[in-house]
Design brief:
221 residues; mainly alpha
Amino acid sequence: MSGIVESSGTDAARQLPGGQEGMRPAEGHAGYHRAVRPALLDATLEVFLERGYTDAGLTEIAARSGIPGGSLFQHYGGKRGLYLALWEEFREEQERRTAATLAVERSHGVDDPIALFVAGARAYLHGAWDNRRLGRLLAQDDAPAGFDALRRQWDRAWVRRNARLLEVDERQRAGRVRVSVLTTVIGGAARELGDCGDETEALEIVDEVCGILIHLSTPPG
C-alpha cells in the first residue's frame, strides 16, 4: 500500500489475478449499494480485525452491519469481495488525499519535483495515520488468495508514478532503484504509523520520514 499516487482509476483493482471477480456491485443496485456500503465496510473491518480474514464469517458481518447475508453475497460475492472493497476504499482515499495536496502545491507555484514528492508523501502518511485501523488489516499476511500478486502489481504502478513525479528516467537502473527505495520507505513508515500509540508520536514519524525522503530523493553529485 505504499507510494505517492495521483488518481489513476480503479478498474484494475476490481479483479484478482486469473480473472477472479472483485467488488464491483451489480449496476442495477448502485443506489442501494451506496446507501449500505459504509455500514457494511465498518462491520467488515471490525470482524476482520477481531477474527482475522481466514476465521471471519459472513454471518457475523451480516449481523453486525444489519444487512441480510443474501444481499451481502449478491453485491460482494463473499469475504474476498469485501476485503477487496476495503482495500479499494483505503487506496482511493489515499489517492484523493495525495492528488489534492499536489494540486494545492502546484497552484501555489511549487514545481520542484522533490518538493512535490515529499508533500505528497506527507499527505499519504497523514492518511495512513487517520486510517490506521484499515492499514493494520491490509498489512497483515492473512488475506484472500491472490491478493499479494494484486498488491505487487499496484506497487509497481506506484513506483512508476513516483518516477514520473520525480522526473526520474526509468530507463536508467540507478533511477529505478532510487524510486523503488523511496516507495518502500513510505510503505514501511505507513505500517509503523499503524502501531503508534498517539498522534504526537505519529507526527514525529512523519516528520522524520519526510526528512529521510528529502535526503534520499536528491540525486548524487
